[in-house]
Write a structure and sequence with these properties.
Elements lengths: L18 H12 L7 H14 L4 E7 L6 E4 L8 H13 L11 E10 L2 E11 L4 H48 L3 E6 L4 E4 L1 H4 L7 H4 L4 H4 L5 H14 L3 E6 L5 E10 L5 E10 L1 H46 L6 H32 L7 E3 L1 H12 L9 E6 L6 E3 L1 H19 L4 E8 L6 E8 L6 H4 L19 H11 L3 E7 L3 E9 L4
Parallel strand pairs: 11-13
Antiparallel strand pairs: 1-2, 1-4, 3-4, 5-6, 5-9, 7-8, 8-9, 10-12, 13-14, 14-16, 15-16
Helix pairs in contact: 1-2, 1-4, 9-10, 10-14, 11-12, 12-14
This protein binds adenosine-5'-triphosphate (ATP) and magnesium ion.
């Protein structure tokens, strides 16, 4: 006989479940997600109300403020604000379990406490119809299920709050360091980058934050010598003292680098902050101040001795003239020698006078009062004066003069003096061959300034030499050709006009000297 592989056939007849168990099964299904949610609580109270059945069913849950309680309840059971406040107070006070039972109605209130915290309360009102025990049992099971759910919600609420607070703090700190006008980064004791601000991302030396964070600083700043960098960091880590030094970046700008040790809770140094400030402009200003002070001191000295030197020079000049008057009495064979010596003495005395006068210009530039001047007109007048100069005859000259240029307040004689000094220098640098371009216009970077630029195609200057050209007596010209005072005087005069002079030069290619003067009606 063939056996039925499926075994004896069974008929499935539904066995009625105990109503308490049915209710528990429904409730646990509603809570099956295992996490607290308002919709799960709403279904819970509806199921409870129907399943017990109850005339009132509410689940009270403590709110974020740790004081008030929210009631989850089916439509008709939502409590009034007064009831809500009373219940909250009763739960807090631990008196909520006292109920007002009547002969046919029974209130059941099951507290949901966890580690002494009153997280909530289950409240139902049922009829005294013999099913009270079942209701009590069901409620206590549900309370056991609900309490850990509420507890974990509180915990995650605290955690979420803490995470949000920390994130906010970090975000605020980041905003602060991002808004700093200095490049800043932080490394930990393992030389790993922990912070990298916005400014450190910009500029030619900038590196994007995501390429820096978490990586060893030596890999990030791979162009800097590793050993040197490590030594600098270690010095701060071991000494605990701030280190400051200056450096020139690849972009040729000057930086002040500060390395600051960072301690947490006064313990040992955990991090190191490096701050890089661009101090190029500040250095320039410092240099200019030093330069003006030096020139002013020189000028004062010159003014002091000028009188003492001018008088003897005048005497020597007069003596030379007198001696020249006796030249007839000199024997014929010596006459040409005597005349030659007298001429040399005369020209050297003249040279001394010129130097003394130039030096005097350093202390108080002469040239009279200032009035409104059109720099284009002054440029033309200077060119007229230079036209017959030997050094100018074979040069090509280009004018690029802006029309409708605003006037400046200046002494015309002094403007001629500086334009002439700059153009003679240009001519010297080109050794009488090349192109001199005179450009005038409004300073594109500042609307309130007029600029006058003299560009030559001469021998130019090395960077190191540019630093020295405004020093009095610095000259590279043959003896007797230059005194080295031309640019120092330009500097003083321009400063007296509240202007600036800037140099741009490339060795072997040429130079541009640019004078900036404030407009008269800026
Ligand atoms: N356009 C230029 N191109 C190249 N070098 C320049 C230029 N202008 C100035 N210099 C350099 O700067 C030095 C100083 O110039 P400065 O005008 O102060 O003195 P100088 O021309 O040598 O003498 P002085 O002007 O007193 O006759 C020059 O000797 C030269 O080396
Ligand atoms: Mg000169």
């Amino acid at each position: 006989m063939a056996e039925n592989p499926a075994g004896p056939r069974m008929r499935s007849t539904p066995v009625p479940m105990h109503p308490g168990l049915q209710l528990l099964s429904d409730v646990t299904t509603a809570l099956s997600a295992g996490v607290f949610s308002a919709s799960a609580m709403d279904s819970l109270v509806v199921l409870l109300k129907r399943g017990l059945p109850a005339s009132v069913c509410r689940l009270w849950v403590r709110q974020d403020d740790d004081l008030s309680y929210r009631a989850f309840a089916p439509e008709g059971d939502i409590p009034s604000p007064e009831v809500q406040a009373q219940m909250a107070q009763a739960i807090r006070a631990g008196t909520a379990e006292a109920t007002d039972d009547s002969w046919d109605q029974l209130s059941l209130r099951v507290p949901l406490n966890h580690e002494g915290e009153r997280l909530g309360l289950l409240e139902v009102r049922i009829a005294r119809d013999g099913r009270e025990t079942m209701a009590r049992d069901v409620l206590s099971v549900i309370a056991n299920v609900l309490t850990p759910l509420l507890a974990s919600r509180e915990l995650s609420k605290d955690l979420a709050f803490e995470v949000a607070r920390r994130a906010r703090e970090i975000e605020e700190q980041r905003r602060v360091i991002d808004s700093l006008p200095v490049g800043l980064y932080v490394i930990d004791r393992h030389y790993r980058v922990q912070a990298w601000n916005r400014k450190r991302e910009t500029g030619t030396q900038g590196i994007p934050r995501e390429k820096a964070i978490g990586r060893p600083i030596f890999d990030v700043l791979h162009r800097q010598p590793r050993e040197l960098l490590r030594r600098e960091f270690d010095e701060v880590f071991t000494s605990g003292r701030l280190q400051v030094y200056e450096a020139v970046g690849e972009d040729n700008r000057q930086y002040r680098i500060s390395k600051i040790p960072m301690r947490q809770d006064d313990q040992e140094i955990s991090h190191l902050i490096t701050i890089g400030e661009d101090i190029t402009e500040w250095k320039d200003v410092q240099g200019q101040i030093a330069q003006s002070e030096k020139l002013a001191a020189m000028g004062q000295l010159a003014a002091g001795i000028m009188h003492e030197i001018n008088n003897p020079l005048a005497t020597i000049g007069a003596c030379i003239d007198a001696v020249a008057g006796y030249s007839d009495t000199v024997p014929a064979e010596a006459r040409s020698k005597v005349d030659e010596y007298l001429r040399i003495m005369d020209s050297e005395v003249e040279r001394c006078k010129r130097i003394v006068n130039n030096l005097l210009d350093l202390s108080r530039p002469r040239g009279g009062a200032k009035s409104e001047q059109d720099v284009n007109v002054v440029v033309e007048e200077t060119l007229l004066l230079l036209k017959h100069h030997d050094r100018f005859k074979s040069l090509e000259l280009r004018r690029d003069l802006a029309a409708d240029l605003a006037p400046v307040m200046a002494s015309k004689d002094q403007l001629i003096q500086i334009f002439m000094a700059l153009m003679l220098n240009a001519a010297d640098a080109m050794e009488a061959r090349g192109t001199l371009t005179v450009h005038t216009g409004r300073n594109p970077a500042r609307g309130d300034e007029v600029m006058i630029a003299f560009s030559d195609t001469g021998h130019g200057m090395a960077k190191a030499d540019i630093q020295k050209i405004f020093e009095p007596f610095y000259t590279t010209k043959p003896h007797g050709r230059g005194t080295g005072l031309g640019l120092s005087i330009c500097y003083t005069i321009i400063a007296d006009h509240r202007g600036r002079i800037e140099v741009d030069s490339t060795l072997g290619r040429g130079s541009t000297f640019t004078v900036y003067l404030p407009m008269a009606h800026a």
